[in-house]
Amino acid sequence: MKSDLLDYLMRVSGAAIRALVYSMLAAPAILVIVSSFTSSDTMEFPPTGFSLRWYQAAFESERFMGALWTSTYIAVLVALIALVIGFAGAFAINRFSFRGKAILLALAFSPLVVPAVVLGIGLLQLFVWLNLARTIYPLLIGHLVLAIPYVVRTVLASLALHNQQLEEAAMNLRATPLRVIRRITLPLILPGLLSAAIFAFVTSFGNVTVSSFLTYGGHATLPVRIFAYMDNSYDPLLAAVSSIMIVVTLVIILVIERLIGAERLA
Question: pTM of this prediction?
């Protein structure tokens, strides 16, 4: 009786703590979304009236919609390229023993410990020296440098958890290494690959610090545009644009949930 009551209290307290944590995490996004529907000329919570005019202004703004396209385009490229590079590096680290393996692993994770400002300045100087500062390559490569560590770490965890005996059985049946990877390894770690791609996309899509140094030809990412706009104005247009970013992220999560399921992905 006493133990049942204790278990019940623990479950209730655990549920209450989880609800509190989730509420604290969701509160900023909810506040921004609700504020974006205000009819006032200034951002305020709670809004004084309901209006969609700030969303109309956001979609009519070439500055923000162009930045949204740039962010999405770069993030998709980063997710695809980082997934290929990260999988190759993680597979080599996980399956083979070679000289310099520890150095390769440390190099793959090194962008996580380098301050973003230092990384942005260093990359900017590098691409100015290469005369590529006014192209898309600095922004693309800068985001790749930031995203690859997350991909390598996620794929390494997936490779370490799945059963390698299936691969060994396939090779005993004279399947080529490429066929084993394509027909067995990749399907088994598909949730990890999708998770890594999401990490890469979100890392690129939401980056501000490095992106502010590597914008090209007047093309800036959406977070950079938002922060630049905040220097001159603080109207509800910012809330509307930020809400669009939140919706893009939620759409990605819902698509993954529809395709493979969030629980399996986790």
Answer: 0.78
Report yes or no: 47 and 38 within 8 Å, Cβ to Cβ: yes
Residue-level pLDDT at 4:
61
Under 8 Å between Cβ of 154 and 87 = no
Cβ–Cβ under 8 Å, residues 71 and 139:
no
- The span from the CA of 250 to the CA of 253, in Å, is 5
Q: What is the DSSP string of 33-85?
A: HHHTTB-SSS--SS-SSB--HHHHHHHH-HHHHHHHHHHHHHHHHHHHHHHHH
Element (H, E) at 103: helix 101-109
The three-class DSSP label of residue 161 is helix
Give the C-alpha separation, 47 to 136, whole Å. 40
Residue 125 has pLDDT above 80, yes or no: yes
Q: What is the DSSP letter of 171?
A: H
Name the maximum alpha-carbon separation found in the chain.
75
Mean per-residue pLDDT, 206-225: 79
How far apart are alpha carbons 189 and 259 in whole angstroms? 15
Query: Using CA atoms, how far apart are residues 205 and 130, in angstroms rounded to an integer?
Result: 25
Structure tokens, 214: 């590597």
Specify whether the CB–CB gap between 184 and 197 falls below 8 A: no
Give 2's pLDDT tier (boundaries 50, 70, 90): low
